[in-house]
Each structure stands twice: as C-alpha cells, then as structure tokens.
Design goal:
By secondary structure, the chain is of the alpha/beta class. Helix content is 37%, strand content 17%. The strands form 4 sheets. It has a 7-stranded mixed sheet, sandwiched between helices. Helix 3 packs parallel to helix 9, helix 4 runs parallel beside helix 5 and helix 11 crosses helix 12.
Length: 382
C-alpha cells in the first residue's frame, strides 16, 4: 500500500518490506538467482587479480572499463556512459537536473515504486499514464501524445516493464520520439532497460534504444538479469553532451563517484555476460513454462499477462470469484503458507493484482511455492 508522507520528500511504499522479510516461498523477488561473492571473484580473475586494486575515489563519470563494457552492448560510445548507484539514482539525477518548479515528467504506470518516487523526491510534477491489464499493459505512443506539452521535460518508461515483464517494440519507441519532437521538442525520453537481457532460452534481446538519438537516455544495471543487486551498480547512456556534463557534475556533488571495487566487479560481469546469462536464460525459460502451466491449471480463479522478458509477471484474481473480502483473506493467508508476493498496489495497480517472481527460486522450490499458492487460493474460495 502506498501512502503519502507527512514530512519526507519521498512517499512511503510497502515494497520496502521486501528488504526485511524473506519467507521460504519468496515469489516477490524480481531478480534472477543471486551471484555469490566467490563466483564474482572467479569472474574477476580471483583474489590475486583484485589485490592491487586501489580503493581511492573513482571518476564521477565512472570506471572506464565498465563504461566500455556498457557501450559495447548499447551501441553508444564509452564517453556517452555515466555509471550510477542503481538505475533509480540515474533517474533521480535526470529529474533533479532537468526539472524546475512547474516542469512536468510523463511516466507510465504500473511501475517500480522507486522509479516514480525518485521523480517525486526530485520535485517533478508527474503526469501518469496508466497502462491496462486488460490491454496486456501495451504502451502505445499515441496515448502519450495528449499528455505532452511545453512544460514536459522528461518522459519515463521501462521496457521490459516492472512489474509485468511486457516490452515495447523499438518501432513504438521511435514513434514516440517523433511525437515528442513535435509536441515537446526540449524533452528527453528515458528508457529503463534493466530487464532487457533477461530473455527466455535462445530468444534474442530487443535492441537498446540508446542509439536512437540525442534525446534518448537509457538506464540499466547488473541487479536483475545478471543477479548482482548487492553491487548497487548501474548506468545511464546519455548522448547529449551538455546534459551529460550536467549529470556528471550532479553525481559528483551527490555521491562523488562509484566504488572502484563494485564497478570493477560489474565490469567483469558485463565482459562475461554470455557466460552468466546463458544458464539464467535457460532457467527462466523453464520457470516461465512451469508458471504458465500453473496459471492454466488455476484459470478458474486467475488470469495473467504473459511477460515478454524478465523474471516476473502480473497475475490477477478473477473479480467474479474474489470480492473485496476474499481479496483481503488471500493476502492474510500468505504468511502462514510461508509465501511472499508483490502487492499490485505497490506498483500503482489494485491489490487484486500481484507480481509473481518466477526467476529467483530454484525450479523444485518454485514448484513447491506454486503448490502452496494453490493451497491458499483453494482455502479462500472453498
């Protein structure tokens, strides 16, 4: 549940509970399996390869090695990459630097709560465009057009989206850019591509939007697809040279630089991303198949939007079965069943929708978790 804060700049959101609670059947996580520090050390060449690493300040733009690795997968140059402490900090820097009182940011929802709240914390005025479960959460550029104007400084979207894993085709993003150039020519488009590499099996990731022009900024991190959220290392691609220098200056004043150790380890991850991503993509393919079969088995009480990528999806309790009292009972029974789910209200949806993460648990544990969830559903509707 999201509630306004009476004193702070950032609205409270109960998604923060995921940092404090980790039940046995954790279906609330949106990441792939976590890398261990030992695995990371091996990727980096072992302890000896890091023994001479100096733990001084890095540059505010970021570790050159990491920026080169990011550039290699986003079709920009290393000079057009700025490292950040997670994608959310990158979006905060954008809003803080681009927006002044009265300026607006257009954002699509449902969305990852810090994505929205970082904009609020930076003082931006939001124009929210709600995407529909019944329409498969598909983003259409024409629906954004009426919300654009002279006061628009930033348009923010994610592809694939969190909480639902739905991607926006690159052609639709190009169409949106054409509209923005007409309606809001000074605005920038931010595309969060955090889940772009979290594809299923042999599926090819969508191309990055980073190469579409100077008005496009992309962000991502090693947190989701790569399994290293604890590194807190992400990046922006910023092709506009003036904005890039402003953001580097803003970052220097807020955090000075990233950690040389974290950025070195993140660079090792990206340099060996095929080695890291291949087994995760296979596991995600198996997990989405398992989840799809489970939803089909529970189709009398559930419906879902099948994701295009990512380790997550949105599932809805059928309104014909779950009235308000049954919805409450559903959420009340989860702790006793050792289950965690992401409440749709956290993301701008209703509590009749939940985010289910299918990529975090090993497959045998995922099977047991889904069985436990079936038990809760049966207990509510019996």
């Amino acid at each position: 549940m999201t509630t306004p804060s009476s004193t702070g700049r950032f609205p409270r959101n109960d998604i923060i509970s995921l940092l404090d609670v980790n039940r046995q059947f954790n279906l609330a996580e949106s990441t792939a399996r976590d890398l261990t520090f030992g695995e990371l050390l091996d990727l980096a060449g072992g302890p000896s390869a890091l023994s001479a690493l100096r733990l001084g300040y890095g540059t505010s733009a970021g570790l050159p090695r990491l920026r080169e690795a990011v550039a290699d997968q986003t079709c920009v140059t290393p000079d057009e990459v700025i490292t950040t402490q997670g994608t959310a900090l990158g979006l905060f820097l954008l809003a803080f630097e681009l927006c002044r009182p009265g300026d607006e940011v257009v954002i699509t929802t449902p969305c990852f709560p810090p994505t929205r709240n970082s904009l609020i914390g930076a003082g931006a005025e939001l124009r929210e465009i709600r995407l529909s479960f019944d329409d498969g959460y598909r983003l259409r550029a024409a629906e954004i057009e009426p919300h654009l104007g002279d006061r628009t400084r930033l348009v923010s979207l994610a592809s694939p989206q969190n909480p639902n894993g739905v991607s926006t085709p690159i052609e639709e993003i190009e169409h949106l850019l054409e509209i923005m150039l007409r309606k809001s020519p000074t605005a920038f488009l931010f595309v969060d591509e955090t889940y772009r590499d979290a594809t299923y099996g042999d599926a090819t990731p969508l191309p990055s939007a980073g190469s579409l022009g100077e008005r496009v900024i992309t962000g991502a991190s090693v947190s989701k697809a790569h399994g290293a959220p604890g590194l807190r290392t992400g990046w922006l691609t910023v092709r506009d040279p003036d904005l890039r220098q402003r953001l580097i200056l803003a970052k220097m004043n807020l955090v000075i630089s990233g950690s040389p150790l974290d950025e070195t380890l993140a660079a090792a991850i990206l340099e060996q991303r095929d080695h890291i991503l291949a087994p995760r993509r296979k596991m995600l393919a198996d997990a989405i198949t398992l989840t799809s079969r489970w939803v089909e088995h529970e189709t009398a009480v559930l419906e879902w939007v099948k994701p295009d990528a990512g380790a997550l999806c949105c599932i809805r309790l059928r309104s014909s079965v779950f009235d308000a009292a049954r919805q409450r009972r559903f959420w009340e029974l989860l702790p006793d069943a050792k289950l965690q789910l992401g409440d749709g209200a956290w993301f701008g949806e209703s509590s009749g929708v939940f985010r289910l993460g299918f990529g975090y648990l090993p497959l045998p544990e995922l099977t047991r978790a889904l069985d436990a969830l079936s038990g809760v559903l049966a207990a509510v509707v019996c």
